[in-house]
Amino acid sequence: EVDLEERLCELDLRNDSDVPDVPPPTDSTPEILKRALSGLSARWKNWWIRGILTLAMISGFFLIIYLGSFMLMLLVLSIQVKCYHEIITIGYRVYHSYDLPWFRSLSWYFLLCVNYFFYGETVADYFATFVQRREQLQFLIRYHRFISFALYLTGFCMFVLSLVKKHYRLQFYMFAWTHVTLLITVTQSHLVIQNLFEGMIWFLVPISSVICNDITAYIFGFFFGRTPLIKLSPKKTWEGFIGGFFSTVVFGFIFSYFLAQHQYFVCPVEYNSETNRFVTECEPSELFQMEKYSVPPLLQAVLGWETVNMYPFQMHSFALSTFASLIGPFGGFFASGFKRAFKIKDFADTIPGHGGIMDRFDCQYLMATFVHVYITSFIRGPNPSKLLKQLLILQPEQQLSVYKTLKSHLVEKGILQPSLRG
Amino acid sequence: RSLQSGCYSSFYLFDLQESESENKLDGETASDSESKSEFGGSSPVPTSDDTPEVLNRALSNLSSRWKNWWVRGILTLAMITFFFIIIYLGPMVLMTIVMCVQIKCFHEIITIGYNVYHSYDLPWFRTLSWYFLLCVNYFFYGETVTDYFFTLVQREEPLRILSKYHRFISFALYLTGFCMFVLSLVKKHYRLQFYMFGWTHVTLLIVVTQSHLIIHNLFEGMIWFIVPISCVICNDIMAYMFGFFFGRTPLIKLSPKKTWEGFIGGFFSTVLFGLLLSYVMSGYRCFTCPVEFNNDTNSFTVDCEPSELFQLQEYNIPVLLQSVVGWKTVRMYPFQIHSIALSTFASLIGPFGGFFASGFKRAFKIKDFANTIPGHGGIMDRFDCQYLMATFVNVYIASFIRGPNPSKLIQQFLTLRPDQQLHIFNTLKAHLVDRGILGSLEDA
After folding, report:
1. How much is the CA Rg of chain B, to the nearest whole Å?
2. By residue range, what is the domain housing residue B223?
């Protein structure tokens, strides 16, 4: 026990630079690439590998978009599980806790519980007609919160019962590590899915803006970079930061212009119970209908136009791109600080040249929450079908009083004609 | 660097000492832990005797063991009396008390984190922890206030804007804190800073969310606040007494003082206590009615027609109990059936919250969370079992008792577009006509 505590002391208190680095990850670049690039020098070889993998990921992304919203949901779910796995593995390595009793099972169990809770909340909303038809699902939906809480409690009690005398502190650390990871990865992946259901454009534009900012900041930094931005990430420069900001805003504008024209991207995703498929068909809302805007006098001289036809959504894309360029990088700095704190170079070795999945998605998390909060605050009102569902659960007397209130309100606003027919 | 190595060596020494007293800890049974007053020397913060002077003088002739028993007993009575006074003063004062308890618990846990990591001098960190506490509280209070104070909020212009963009404002505030944290990362202290960031967030998750669930329960009706808390307190006291008089078989290695006899005795007494307490409370409107905010008098009112739950009904006693009790039917409130569920949870699962806290204290080598209450420890020590209870009651109410809130639904309806409003209105009308609730087309 003294040995364990001693090791813990070393981890906690010694100066960061004294602790030896975790051994560098093995090179998992596929053989084909290696042979193709065997002639080039090491620096260019790394550049080419990163470039090829970037293109591969972007193509994969386009392919999934083509395949539709259901595939996208599955993709988001797999990424979430992989990110969770990466962070938990780091925790294991840091605390040498491979042999803690039960802990792997408990971590995966908690992941399952929290996912069950969140999917239950979303499924109930969007698949209302599907659920109404099946008895067992009805029961699960009605008592959903209670069932989720009971599942979580079981995990909690198992944790308490699994506390072993020599490992108390380690077990509490891993418990907290698990919960913070769940908070970061699971809640935000569900926010991404909710954004997706609002319309694929709300999923594509933010993610593309973050990727574009990453790439253009890197390119601007490569060619013009001189002033370092922050001590945490010595490779970032102010030139890259500002250049990335302007290019991302322009990219966001142009990209939303193209996407806003297609119903496939603009319409909320709905589940059609007859065909048992997701459909994206609707009357495009005001956000996606061209409007004339007067160009402010300052810009008139530069551009030479007096009015311009734009989608209102492009105004929103301006806010989204600004966030992606200015605040998104803080997510990246947070991840860099985390990697430095725990002396790791990358989260994992999943993608050759890039590191783990978490490395690619660190900036996305803040973005997902921002887009969700933005939509609920400025764009979307409450969901009518959810409201209806809740109205139908009320007691009959409550329904009657609500009906009367609504009727008087509608008559007052002139939406309903006051007549004997009600 | 020398400061760090100094801290390191003292930490190392403290651990060596601990490995010896750890064995003493396990050998303990039902006797009380007064012999462990030496324990104070090995914890990072030495515990001082906080008992007020007056008590010290009054009890000066008794032996040390009985003195401690008396101190605990007197403080217990003082806390229970205090509880009754607060209930008498009304919901507003209760809300304030819950708020204060929450802040104190947060402070206690964060202070432990500081002590464990010797991180008194991390730049910005105290400020950031309190700032995050403020943000999360602002977010939660904003959500509750908008629901219950709807008309008040609509009248005042600044409040209306704050409530309309509430989520966005809360998120912006949180983000500011997050960015400040990232900017405050200092080269030598990365790991410590990330630890404290994680520690703060887990503490917020435990302490703040659950105190807000307690307030939700309170608004449902004061009985939903009082019965669960009293059941947990009763279970604590009853399990202690049963353990004191009859305790023999240890329950769990984590808490050597707990015994199976105490556990089971506590369970039955708590269920009985719950039944009796709910019987007494269900008769009074001030406990059973939902708390509402009266716009005209600008105060909280608890006045309503009691719901079915709080109206006496005849129940048939199952045949097994008939011979025991001698009655064929009994008049009970339906709420008393629910109180059985609440008491069962308080006795069977509530203690796991206590075991979790015991494990936590052992893991970080502390005797108590703090020294706020003489004889009892910190506020957190008293409230560790309550947290699971609060979440359970809230989930129970949401699943089995309460339907959606009609005024909240109307409020959401009013923000929809006219065509959506019309669609919902027509669907509702068709549903009501279908069920025969709405007699004819003219009858509205």
Report:
1. 26
2. 62-122+186-403
Of A277-281, B50-54, B64-68, B108-112, the range with the lowest mean pLDDT is: B50-54
Asked if the C-beta of B396 comes within 8 angstroms of chain A's C-beta atoms, the answer is: yes
SS3 A277: strand
**Summary count for chain A: helices (H), strands (E):** 19, 6
Nearest to A384 among B406, B424, B444 (CB): B424
Within this chain, do residues A12 and A42 fall inside the same structural domain, yes or no? yes
Q: Token digits for A338?
A: 């985390």
What are the E-state strand segments in A238-319? Answer: 270-272, 277-279, 291-294, 307-310
Q: Which of B4, B19, B396 is nearest residue A2 as measured by Cβ atoms?
A: B19
Contact call for A168 and B414, based on CB within 8 A: no
- pLDDT of A112 strictly over 50: yes
How far apart, in whole angstroms, are the C-alpha atoms of residue B218 and residue B291?
8
Q: Are residues A242 and A173 in the same domain?
A: yes
**Chain B contact probe: residue of A138, A145, A160, A385 with most B CBs at under 10 A:** A160
Distance CA B154, CA B134 (A): 24
- Split into its structural domains, chain A has a count of 2
Look at B192 and A12 and tell me if their CB atoms are within 8 Å: yes
Cβ distance A12 to B190 less than 8 Å, yes or no, reads no
Structure tokens at A241: 């930061």
Task: Annotate B292-312 with b (16+ C-beta within 10 A) or e (fewer).
Answer: ebeeeeeebebeeebbebbee
Tell me the average pLDDT across B363-370: 76
Domain interval for residue A230: 1-100+164-380
Interchain proximity B171–A369, CB inside 8 Å? yes
pLDDT tens by residue, B269-288? 999 999 999 988 888 877 88
Domain match, A316 and A333 both: yes
In a domain, A145, yes or no: no
**CA B427 to CA A198: how far, in whole Å?**
24
Most confidently modeled of A123-137, A199-213, A406-420? A199-213
Tell me the sheet residues that pair with A233.
Answer: A230
Who has greater pLDDT, A384 or A6? A384
Secondary structure of residue A314 in the 3-state scheme: helix
Cβ contact, residue pair B416, A399, below 8 Å: no
What ipTM does the predicted assembly reach? 0.79
User: Domain total for chain B?
Assistant: 1
Average pLDDT, integer, range A318-339: 88
Measuring CA to CA, which residue among A359, A232, A15 is closest to residue B183?
A: A232
What are A70-97's pLDDT values in tens digits?
788 888 888 889 888 888 888 777 666 5
Cβ of A143 within 8 Å of Cβ of B399? The answer is yes
pTM check: above 0.80: no
Q: B441 at the A interface (CB within 8 A)?
A: yes
* Residue B354 included in any domain: yes
B423 and A384 in contact by Cβ < 8 A?
Answer: yes
Place of tokens 């994992």: A348
Of residues B15, B166, B435, nearest to A5 (C-beta):
B15
